[in-house]
Amino acid sequence: MLSGRRLDLLDPSPFDIEIEDIAHGLAFVARWNGQTEGDYPYSVAEHSLLVEEIFVRLRPKSESKWRLAALLHDAPEFVIGDMISPVKEAIGTGYESLENRLSAAVRLRFGLPIELPPAIEKSIKKADKLSAWLEATQIAGFSPSDANRHIGYFRETRCKGLKVLVRRPTDVRSDFKNRTAELLQLMDRCATAPKREWRSKNPSIHGRLNPSGGVVDKARSALR
Fold first, then answer.
1. What's the CATH code of the domain at 129?
2. For the whole model, what pTM was predicted?
3. Which of 64, 76, 78, 192 could form a disulfide with 214 if both were Cys (CB 3.0 to 4.6 A apart)?
4. How many domains does the chain have?
């Protein structure tokens, strides 16, 4: 990794995962095997930003941690690349097992549960497919009927007006990192808000206990 970390793909540790490596890798990995319109490849990082945006439209009241889970849904591809579905199926369970281990390490690294709630998982997958449909019809040369046949039929008004962007990898890398930082800050606030409310109601007890800081901050400190 450019950060200097050495990630064991067969036994990945959250201690060896850095957002800089994820953002850089995903920004330079092309979706659709590079067969997209524009002067730059359409990156997995750009796709991930779009998936998170669609996820929020599907679940506007979702917690910041689930938005982060949507943003990081393809994070393992920063080291194993993006494979089209037929290739994944040909490789079989070995690829899926590798991908699952990497996903677990990424989620632990950023304070997410290894197993997402089924409803959240379902919404992320729907957002992923909706993103693929938009990409197929806007930049990958598919007609709507072709996209309906190969990806799935969608009539999703919540995605109306969304435009698939094809930008410089360095710009996408920066936006991916910034969005991750924003969501982590929101997670910190959500984690510490109940403590602040409890302290305000129990000032004398708080003085004796002197509780420590936010959950995500403690996780970050442990991973440094």
1. 1.10.3210.10
2. 0.83
3. 192
4. 1
Report whether 173 contacts 29 (CB < 8 A): no
Please indicate, yes or no, if residue 22 is contained in any of the structural domains: yes
Range of the domain at 157: 14-223
Q: HSE-up of 67 (CA within 13 Å, CB side)?
A: 23
6, part of any domain: no
Q: Phi, psi at residue 73, to the nearest 5°?
A: -65, -25
Residue 8 resides in a domain: no
Within 10 angstroms of residue 170's Cβ, the number of other Cβ atoms is 12
Give the mean pLDDT of 91-106. Answer: 87
131: left (phi over 0), alpha (psi -120 to 50) or beta: alpha
- pLDDT tens-digit series, residues 67-84: 999 999 999 999 998 877
How far is CA 33 from each of CA 41, 43, 130, 166, rounded to the nearest angstrom? 9, 10, 19, 14
Tokens 């850089």 locate to 24
User: Within a domain: residue 112?
Assistant: yes
pLDDT, tens digit (0-9, with 9 covering 90-100), for 165-184: 999 999 999 999 999 999 99
- 92 pLDDT higher than 80: no
CB within 8 Å of 67: residues ≥ 6 apart:
52, 55, 56, 183
The kind and range of the H/E element at 33 are none
